[in-house]
């Protein structure tokens, strides 16, 4: 009897547990179903919102430069127009300049090589080098000016927002805006060239442009490709201190991405007014990788080659290559990517060797100059 009662008691006490478990299981299933319904509704709402507010865009237009064909056999500039626009009664070389900049010793050999290439191309304008005396040693300045650039120390223009977001190597680049102040020296127009460029042909026709600002559209090797924005490595500028003051006053408050520093700012400042020049005036090496046929077929017309990457005179992270290793470095870079840029690297290397030979006496004196950067500021008054 006890055994029966105990069994009955255990069974009776167990039955409610089964009912309770079933109830919890049902509640969990209901909760899961509710969550699934809520998530499904949310996803459908998001889809419908995106569909009606962001209708499907048409495919991008065909870019002729991505499908380059060698169709046009004619030159960029006809001889009769060129001879007229550069006639002595219209063109005074003293009113025009080719300007480059030097913010670090590492680019001094490149500036010297650029200067020699300008002389070989018989460019008629004055050659001016703007440099930061606190960052360039007397020895490097001597090398940079050995082939003809006249040095002018300038004050650094700091990047806005303390340079937050700018590429570390571009933090001094807002100093480039000083170019607009050269009207104070009687210069009406100038062509600015980055130190990592090389001149292949005369480009005096640029000085006859009636516009205030011109540049070449930029090129990227990634999905961006050929873009509307311009590269700031080659610029045509009609100088104006008034424009300079206005540009500088707006830097801190203008809304632009700082990664590409002054190039980004100039694109926002002149975006609607810039005159876009042919790629012959800024032969960005990215063109060769993206459109080898276009690069090949425009070689004869190309005035300026821009060694955006690779640079035959740098190593590592924008580090200086010792003078005695430069020719070896050129040969090394010429083999990169199965020799993709071999011809261009040898152009630079040959110009460098020629420059070394022609200006060897001056260069010999340069290497006896002090390596400290403080002495350079005493050479001439700073342009501010």
UniProtKB/TrEMBL annotation:
<protein>
    <recommendedName>
        <fullName>Glycosyltransferase family 8 protein</fullName>
    </recommendedName>
</protein>
<dbReference type="InterPro" id="IPR029044">
    <property type="entry name" value="Nucleotide-diphossugar_trans"/>
</dbReference>
<dbReference type="Pfam" id="PF01501">
    <property type="entry name" value="Glyco_transf_8"/>
</dbReference>
<feature type="transmembrane region" description="Helical">
    <location>
        <begin position="31"/>
        <end position="52"/>
    </location>
</feature>
<dbReference type="InterPro" id="IPR002495">
    <property type="entry name" value="Glyco_trans_8"/>
</dbReference>
<keyword id="KW-1133">Transmembrane helix</keyword>
<keyword id="KW-0812">Transmembrane</keyword>
<keyword id="KW-0472">Membrane</keyword>
<dbReference type="GO" id="GO:0016757">
    <property type="term" value="F:glycosyltransferase activity"/>
</dbReference>
<dbReference type="InterPro" id="IPR050587">
    <property type="entry name" value="GNT1/Glycosyltrans_8"/>
</dbReference>
